[in-house]
## 1
Amino acid sequence: MYAQYVARRFGMMLLVIVLAVSINFLLPRLMPGDPVEAQLNQLLATGGGGGDISAMVEAYRARFGLDQPLIAQYLSYWKAVFSLDLGVSLAAYPERVSHAILAGLPWTLGLLGFATAVSFVIGTWLGGLLGWPRTPRVTRAFGTSLILFSSVPYFLIGMVLLYLFAIVFRWFPAGGGMPFGQSVGFNWQTLTAIAWHGTLPAASIILAEIGAWALGMRGMMVSVLGEDYITLAEAKGLKPRRIFRWYGLRNALLPQLTKLAMALGHIVSGAILVEVIFSYPGIGFRLYQAIQANDYFVIQGIVLLLSVSIAIAMFILDLAYPLIDPRITTGRD
Amino acid sequence: MAIFSNGPAGLKRNPPLTFGLFLLLALCLLAAIGPFVADEALARVGATLPRQPPSAAHWLGTDSQGRDMVTVLMLAMPQTLKIGLVAGLISLSVGVALGLISGFAGGVVDTVIRLASDVMMTIPGIAILVLVAANVREMTVAVMAVIVASLSWMVTTRTIRAQTLSLRERGYVQIARLNGSSTTRLVFVEILPNLLPFIAASFVIAVSNAMLATIGLEALGLGPQKELTLGTTIYWAQFYGAILRGMWWWWAPPILLISLIFIGLMLTSVGLDSFVNKRVANGS
């Protein structure tokens, strides 16, 4: 049963990756006109060009292999993807796209990992409380207002936080991932600097995410409380706190984990603009810069990375569920 | 069906829905009146002195291009709502159609539609949107709506498919089938009316998702270049460092408007959800 389930999920992941790579390949070719001409014209018109133009044209031609038949181009595109050869940046020629991505990745992963973990824990716990009838009114009002917060896009919250805490009060730095000119090293000073710069961006993601987790958890908690085993636990005279933790919270938690996988894509895309607002040196900010400069290969590379990494992350989470809940492999989707 | 049959009495017992709908209605009204009251010339670059804080002449000041912010907002608001509504409607129709077909046809058709929606759900929408938007030469409000809609039909398809599957096994549908009703009749007379609450809920979610995606794209600078929208306003504010320069009147009002739209949509969605999902409603 497990093997079959794993095989199906693996197939799903492969399908997503194939689709993502194909979209990446096809989109520029579907557009009217010669992509090389158009991209370079755009680049020159917006003044984004730097370096040797004829070398760029060559890079483009080689990259697209435009004289080849479409199927050959497609195959060589796959080969390039597998060898992680994502081309060169045009605005920062001759920097390689893969290098640009690798430079931004640790920042994004750190920021997202931290913010997602914190908001998941707080939000889930808060949602459990909201679905629990004995929760005091104050907590309830607080939780409800956080849920309202979660409907507002992350980066808007980020802009308000930036204005209040970096411009008006000057408690936190207004941007960047590190103090200007300081180099990254494994020491206490670096760590505090990174935490210092990451506080506001992380806070905007956490504030916006808590509500979404709380909302989902509240719904689950309410349905779990209707189950017979809760009634039995109450009849047994167990302490309410115990019922809440071990009978309510625990059982309502599973669908939250499923949602964690679904939410990954959403969180990643939401964080792109948070990085832009705080000039945080992750891949979201790099994507923004690439869009500004019409740096097409970088845009393409980052989009590909996002799709593929989310597909893989979801597959890994899929593998973990049956270990937590055996019903998943036997049940329907 | 409670939403429709209970009327105002049903609304009274559902504060989130009441507040949400009221908020959305007020914003739509504002957006409808705006363009008639606004003097379009004031929203052009260089129309007034740039970087003016709010005053009697310019209630919300001017941006660094010399545009009057009140006018900009009055013209941007309807465009933003229009994109959301049009994209929501398109994605809803596609979603409902595919959901019905998938739930009714079963077999290979069902498998293909389900697989397609699963795959599309996995790929992060904004990533693909960025790629598409970066490739489109001339972005307009209409193109934007279509692009966003093409990537947000999946949630509706899933909801409608699940409901169709459950409805088609109900007694009255079975009887209608035995009486020799055509499939068209089954779908339009027996199934569809009972799906209305779910369709209403899906519509709100579709509009919300569409607006989230649009505003995100616009804030990245991939929105319509020649038309004013709330997201584009934020993009320019960010581009010219309005926050760092302390020009709060440039970025705060569009943020407030966008937040109000999303809070309205959220309340409506939560309110509708308690109709659709009775257990949640009774529990809280």
## 2
Amino acid sequence: MADQMEDLKNTLTYIYSELNRIQTIAGTLSTIENRHYRDLLNMGDDRLNQMANEEQNAARQLGQVKQMCLTMAQKVDELQKNDGQTLQ
Amino acid sequence: MFKFLSNFARSIVNEAVDKAIERIARDQYTENLFELVPVTQKVGLVNLMEIVMRSSQGQPPTRPLGSHIRFSPWDKLLFNPVHLYFFPTPENVSITTAVTIGPRARKPLTISIPIMIAGMSFGGALSKNAKIALAKAASKIGTATNSGEAGLMGEERDAAALFIGQYNRGGWLNTKEKYARLDAIEIQLGQGAQGSSPQRTSTKNIGPEYREVFGIPEGGDALIHSRLPGIDTKEQFMTLVRKLKDETEVPVGLKIAATHHLEHELQIAIEAGVDFITVDGAEGGTHAAAPSLEDDLGLPTLFAVSRASKFLAKKGIDQDVSLIATGGLVTPGEYLKAIALGANAVYIGTAAIMALVGDQMAKAAPFEPPTDLVVYNAKMTERLDIDRGATNVFNFLNAAVREMELICYSLGKTSVADVSRLDLCTLDPFLSRAIGVDLGFVSHEEQQEYFKDFSRLPVVYPPDMVDPAVYSSQLENPIH
């Protein structure tokens, strides 16, 4: 039983750290997509403008991934704190 | 040749106008064509034509796209840019636009922009092509689309990455095998354009696919009841909400037409444990409704959002229960103002439809309205290019969110969700008092002092029309 609890604690810690990594990656990619959007828009071509719009949208969706990861990480953190007593 | 034709046309027009002016000058007023001008001014052109429609059909005319009256004074609210007091957001910082609907649900719904496609039903309102195009656009930009009061159309569900379905008064989506496929459930008890009035689509307007999606037997009508079948008490409503939450684990919300009884309605919804509330203001659009329902019923969106958000905050649950505003929201500025007043996200209907037909409306113009490309049973729905329509809506949403982001930079915000009523001011003292937004012509520090003395408020009626004794008595004993 104690082994299982220890395993669960470790799993939660692992999920928490990976979620934080994913949100950092999403944030970085979002910044890159935003830069692409500006570069493409500067070309002044209709088809590139459409691609620029899609890059801008990709940046926002990565922002969405970032927010989802943050929320999930927060929930995992709450789990760790609230159930810490039980897991001990 | 062209010059000859042009001169010929000019001389005919000139002659016709001369004759018309001559007749208008000489004829008795009661026999004069000009009589139409004062009549139109007195009655209004829309009302005049609707009187004619009523008189010829004997039935309420079914006006599309909602009321023409702009009840919500969005234009009287202005955002406050910052320069030194707070600093604007640096341009290399991204503005967070993602929003989570129903954060306390077991499976919350996160969308990448705070704008969603409003409930517009297949069959009851839109064609299959239009619904699929809207679903594709929503998926591409990372937001949700809504079924409207309809059954579950497989193609729409498949095209929509995030799909909110309406548990509706017609009962067409109300079985577990259908609502279990949704990302959020919106219990639809009313809408801004029609309140909770019953609606009926007759057999002759129901095609085979409509019949199949809705599960309507041959020869049967599609009837939207005024209340949900089987829900005749508050307790039954609460039981329904809990059942849907337990069975699906997705956010379960309530959509109502905004009314002056708003807080009483919300109290019951909160007790039932809804995850989100959709308030549809009086400006809400629809495929078709009687003009009196559209013009004379409901609470304007602006006041509905303001009151609902205040109520949720007062109850201390504004972080748990999401608020969605809808009804006549047209511009990105209006979307952001609704968010500033407390909405977490907005639904758009008419604006999405207009964006959808966008550069394709030339196919219908000039002899048919642009909606002929998208409305179920219209003549030209097969001519709608789905992918082009989806791109149009995607582009519109992208541009709209960009405009909202630009305002956020100027307000010094890093997230759309951080925009609040403190970022607004108004030039209308009554609006200022009603929704708790600072009055723009008095400094922030002097607001309370200014409103201490009500006599400073502009007089609505000219002084000679108001008996001073009655006026001062009203000030002392305000009527509530």
